[in-house]
Amino acid sequence: MNILLLGSGGREHALAWKIAASPLVERLYCAPGNAGIAQEAGTVSLNIADHVAVMAFCRSHRIDLVVVGPEAPLCAGIVDDLTDAGVKAFGPSKAAARLEGSKGFTKDLCKANNIPTAAYERFTTAAAAKAYVRTQGAPIVIKADGLAAGKGVVVATSIAEAEAAIDMMFGGELGEAGGEVVVEEFLEGEEASFFALCDGDNAIALASAQDHKRVFDGDQGPNTGGMGAYSPAPLMTPEMTKRVMDEIVLPTVAAMNAMGAPYKGLLYAGLMITTQGPKLIEYNVRFGDPECQVLMLRLMSDLVPALLACSDGMLKNFDLRWYPEAALTVVMAAKGYPGSYAKGSVIEGLEAAAQIEGVEIFHSGTAAEGGQILANGGRVLNVSALGKTVAEAQARAYAAIDRIRWPEGFCRRDIGWRAVEREQQARP
Ligand code: AMP
Prior knowledge:
Blueprint: E1 2-7, H1 10-20, E2 27-32, E3 42-43, H2 51-60, E4 65-68, H3 71-75, H4 78-84, E5 89-90, H5 98-101, H6 103-112, E6 120-123, H7 126-136, E7 140-144, E8 153-156, H8 159-170, E9 181-185, E10 190-199, E11 203-205, E12 210-216, E13 220-231, H9 238-258, E14 264-274, E15 277-284, H10 291-298, H11 303-312, E16 326-334, E17 346-347, H12 350-354, E18 359-363, E19 366-369, E20 372-375, E21 379-387, H13 390-401, E22 409-410, H14 417-426
Parallel strand pairs: 1-2, 1-4, 2-3, 4-5
Antiparallel strand pairs: 6-9, 7-8, 7-9, 10-11, 10-14, 12-13, 13-16, 14-15, 16-21, 16-22, 17-20, 18-21, 19-20
Bound molecules: adenosine monophosphate (AMP).
């Protein structure tokens, strides 16, 4: 098969690495890709927002399957366009991608189908949203309805903060995404990420994973796209996995099917594990980044048949096998991230770092120039490792990081700390 992967981050490098290992694959391309992905796939400088150009590439290169990494092309309907053109694609249709593209849509779907989630109201004016906030009190959560690249959620600890967030969103700072706002109840508990492959009718849970969103050690500082992740996540016991499938994922798949928008692709549920059980915080319609990196390291089965089964509606009776080892990834970012940062600094020592047992380095924002690897984004590298325990995977990842010479970069030094603490407590 010839496969085209769309995207350019660490998630796509991990997907490319896993897809390239499949005996089913003849040629793998990635658009636009990065310097790391170029080691696994032929990188193509295509504008992936230009669906006509993507379809033309598929025709000229006899692409049998397109795998869509990020959410923006999914919400823009690239899978619909490819399907109409007779090209198979992994990912949801535009109508199904509303699960990420519109928070209001997802909340209404939850309410109509008794899927546990935070209580909420939808608003199209600031005055009405503020009046509601005053009746509810703080803490309270303000969310822009549309895609806002991680900037659309404010957990407000006071009414003043909530009102400021409402003004910011309706004030146009997030563009169209803020034209409607959801105000929801603040949930208490521990967060968990949950991933399932879906084929429109059926869903299968993947291994569990947990990310770290805050930029600094101890889960302090501003939110980011994710500074590291590990798998498995101890919180996700087999019982909890079953509850999430039965109470959240399967009812969602059934509801989407019933409304004529069957969900095919990867469904990522952000959860709060509360004293009453799991509640949905939000859906994403693609793999998490960096959770994808640890899932791909642990996946024993060939990924390609699973992707095909999703798009062909053949997941029933499908089974995925996982390595029992733990996996952990640490994000190395450019200093200043998630604020402003410089591009173009030189990264050295990657080969020596990759020689440490169990280590795999995925690139999330790099470019190659004159035989050197340059930083080309905010999040730049995902230094990842397998180990018998989360603690061992963590030790290997940091040993690799200590071989990387990149003074302009930084990383957290405590990725996986909760899981490592739990492992230590479990030991006699
Ligand atoms: P989201 O983009 O919806 O995942 O929200 C970003 C982060 O905001 C989540 O990972 C949570 O930490 C927090 N969050 C969102 N909604 C809630 C809620 N209802 N209660 C508490 N925290 C929330």
